[in-house]
């Protein structure tokens, strides 16, 4: 848990990805670690993360994330992780902020 807390502190993110060998990525929310001992392995509290194919259209990704009630998803291509997308990333793309004059 100490590693998850350190990663959250260093990045400013509340959801921390846990990568175990070649297994599917998992996610740990910082709040779930607060009462846990430092030595407890993160994968014991980790949850499944939504996985999106790299070819998933933005609107479909938004739909899947809302249905799953998640804030972030892992983007995979050919079985390899290519990145992470957040709900904020998608909303920024779908609903761009315009400046008024």
From TrEMBL:
What residues does the CBS domain cover?
45-101
SMART domains assigned? CBS (SM00116)
- Name the keywords, alphabetized: CBS domain
Which domain of life, per UniProt?
Answer: Bacteria
Q: From the Swiss-Prot or TrEMBL record, give the protein name.
A: CBS domain-containing protein
Q: Which organism is it from?
A: Stutzerimonas nitrititolerans
What are the top taxonomic ranks of the organism? Bacteria, Pseudomonadati, Pseudomonadota, Gammaproteobacteria, Pseudomonadales
């Amino acid at each position: 848990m100490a590693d998850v807390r350190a990663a959250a502190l260093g990045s400013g993110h509340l959801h921390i990805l846990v990568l175990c060998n070649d297994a599917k990525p998992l996610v740990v929310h910082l709040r779930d670690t607060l009462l846990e001992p430092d030595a407890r392995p993160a994968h014991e509290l980790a949850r499944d993360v939504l996985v999106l194919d790299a070819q998933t259209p933005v609107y479909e990704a938004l739909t899947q994330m809302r249905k799953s009630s998640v804030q972030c998803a892992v983007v995979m291509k050919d079985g390899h992780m290519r990145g992470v997308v957040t709900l904020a990333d998608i909303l920024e793309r779908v609903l761009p902020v315009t400046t008024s004059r």
